[in-house]
Design a protein that fits this description.
Low-confidence stretches of chain B: 6-19, 33-50
Radius of gyration of chain B: 22 Å
Helix content of chain A: 10-25%
Number of helices of chain A: 4
Oligomer: heterodimer
Mean pLDDT of chain B: 80
Strand order of the largest sheet of chain B: 2-3-4-5-6
Strand content of chain A: 35-45%
Low-confidence stretches of chain A: none
Largest sheet of chain B: 5 strands, antiparallel
Strand order of the largest sheet of chain A: 2-3-4-5-1-6-10-9-8
Distance between the termini of chain A: 26 Å
Largest sheet of chain A: 9 strands, antiparallel
Mean pLDDT of chain A: 92
Structural class of chain A: alpha+beta
């Protein structure tokens, strides 16, 4: 995969940017709570995350159903809900909802959360880095009865004509190693209900991750994370068309 | 590949047939792997609902309602002016402030707020509306210029109820109706709605 020129857009279609750092061994509930407390200033709101488990015992007469909840960590949010930190036994995730403030701001947000995590937990190497950007391309219908996906994305479905009516939806997901073999990318595209009236919205979800040769030192770690961002940008640029770009300007 | 633009219904229907052969088992496994990757992104900030826990306090219910309004707004933030959005958030905080809230009133519902957002992105008013709400949780947007007033109650599913009053040379005129968002601009057109939506002097 060759590199392309990276552009910035005044109306970037990013609905969500996420950076996940997963560690080798689960941390204790006390350590998680320490992280949660220390993030209170930047992220004043907190919620417990629970997994709901429903068990059905077919051996008992009539079948016995029991429901239980299992703690899965904590979710802290900023006052305007756009900055999110998820603290779980196996790591920490920073997320940013739209409007996307740019990589420098977002990566600094994630770095601050990571520093709090490191200060509050025992030494625990990172075993996975994941950088994920979800983009939504809102296309005005402008009176058209149909739109062509390939006018907006270079990743699109191909199928024989199976009837007289056009396709009403699609789902594509590809998993492909990047030009740097240490990184893998998963690219997903589909149609989503548009939040705008009289629009069609296409989703372009780019997930770049790595599980090998992850540095221990923060400076080196963040340099590696920046690589993921560059790879994501390159993929994004290659997946969109000029018609899409015009929608972001 | 052409995509029909008239359909907004869910496009993907998971296979309901039980796998019978080895191939179909592999296909089912592949779908099982890929579909959750899209629809359960693993980031629980997408999983908020407006259903507060039973016995939730007024503060908790209002917090949840404000939070969901802001998350919904974030989803379209790229289409909003940052300054406009910031002031809009202040209005939401002020509207659902526990100190000024009647205990028996329902907080603004997600369905009503979604209609408000879609209306704003349709009309794109330069002037922000004043916000209010009904006791049942419908949000109300109101624009007043001089003695001319437009009030729109946002109902679920892109429906609105509107009332306006105009001050002409020698009499007052009023009108009201119930319509869908897709018809709103056409319905209001005879009353020159730009008087409310466009700021004088920019």
């Amino acid at each position: 995969m060759s590199h392309t020129t990276i552009k910035t857009y005044p109306h970037a279609p990013i609905t969500e940017a996420t950076l996940e750092l997963r560690v080798q061994s689960p941390v204790s509930s006390q350590e998680q709570q320490k992280v949660v407390r220390r993030l209170q200033k930047q992220y004043p709101h907190v919620e417990n995350l629970n997994e709901l488990r429903v068990n059905f015992d077919s051996q008992r007469t009539g079948g016995a159903v029991s429901v239980s909840t299992q703690p899965q960590g904590f979710r802290r949010t900023s006052t305007d809900q756009t900055e999110v930190a998820l603290i779980s036994p196996l790591g920490v995730t920073s997320a940013r909802l739209a409007p996307y403030p740019g990589w420098n701001v977002f990566s600094n947000q994630a770095l601050d959360v990571w520093k709090v995590w490191k200060r509050s937990t025992k030494i625990n190497p990172v075993v996975r880095i994941g950088v994920r950007y979800i983009n939504r391309i809102d296309i005005p219908r402008d009176g058209r009865q149909q739109i062509r996906v390939e006018d907006y994305l270079t990743i699109y479905p191909q199928a024989p004509e199976l009837g007289v009516l056009p396709m009403t939806g699609y789902f594509i997901q590809i998993e492909v190693p990047t030009h740097d073999p240490l990184w893998t990318s998963v690219i997903t595209s589909t149609v989503v209900p548009s939040p705008l009236l009289d629009h069609i919205s296409l989703l372009l979800d780019i997930d770049v991750s790595r599980t090998e040769e992850i540095p221990m030192k923060d400076d080196d770690l963040w340099a590696v994370i920046a690589q993921a961002h560059d790879i994501k940008n390159n993929i994004f640029q290659r997946c969109i068309t000029q018609q899409s770009e015009r929608l972001f300007e | 590949m052409q995509l029909q633009t008239l359909s907004s219904r869910g496009f993907f229907r998971p296979a309901v047939m039980q796998p019978a052969s080895k191939d179909s088992v592999e296909i089912a496994k592949a779908f099982g792997k890929s579909i959750p990757a899209l629809y359960s992104p693993g980031f629980p900030h997408r999983q908020r609902t407006l259903e507060p826990p039973r016995g939730a306090s007024l503060d908790e219910r209002l917090y949840d309602a404000r939070a969901i309004c802001k998350v919904r707004t974030a989803a379209v933030a790229m289409h909003l002016d940052p300054e406009w959005r910031s002031r809009f958030f202040s209005q939401i905080d002020s509207l659902m402030d526990a100190e000024n809230w009647e205990q028996e009133d329902a907080p603004v519902t997600e369905a009503s707020f979604t209609t408000l957002l879609r209306m704003i992105l349709l009309v794109r008013p330069k002037r922000r509306p004043g916000l209010g709400s009904t006791s049942t949780g419908n949000i109300i947007a109101a624009w007043t210029v001089g003695k001319d007033r437009l009030t729109i109650e946002c109902l679920p599913n892109d429906k609105v109820r509107w009332v306006l009053s105009l001050d002409s040379d020698d009499h007052r005129e009023g009108a009201a109706g119930h319509t869908s968002l897709s018809r709103l601009t056409a319905v209001l057109a005879p009353y020159n709605p730009e008087r409310w939506f466009v700021c004088e002097g920019g």
